[in-house]
Amino acid sequence: MKLYYYCSSCKKENSFTTKTSNRFELKEERGLELSERCPRCGMITKRHLNRVHAKPNKLIILLGAVFGVFVAGVLILLILKISFSPILLFLFYLFIPGTFSIPFISWKIADKKASSFNKLLIAD
Ligand SMILES: [Zn+2]
Prior knowledge:
Blueprint: E1 2-6, E2 13-17, H1 23-30, E3 33-37, E4 44-48, E5 53-54, H2 58-81, H3 86-99, H4 101-119
Antiparallel strand pairs: 1-2, 1-5, 3-4
Helix pairs in contact: 2-3, 2-4
The protein binds zinc ion.
């Protein structure tokens, strides 16, 4: 996931990517303090892991949105192509609103991953 911290020198928000999903794993990987060189001002920032935060992954949300539109499109095409059986039509009309919940669900998943990272702090 992508994690964010503020540079102590230029106060800009920087990010880095890690395979870890919580601060305990991150501590194993990087130690209790993060030291990263700021890509903007070049200063090395030391940040306690509790001051590193996660944000919902926009890529997951975007993929969910694309997938939702795709599924809705396929369903609409099927309705137009398939012989009009009333039961099938009824089923399709039930499913189409469901496809709009795909982006929402993917947003929920991305948000949950980020907030579960942010909630869990490590004790000194
Ligand atoms: Zn900086």
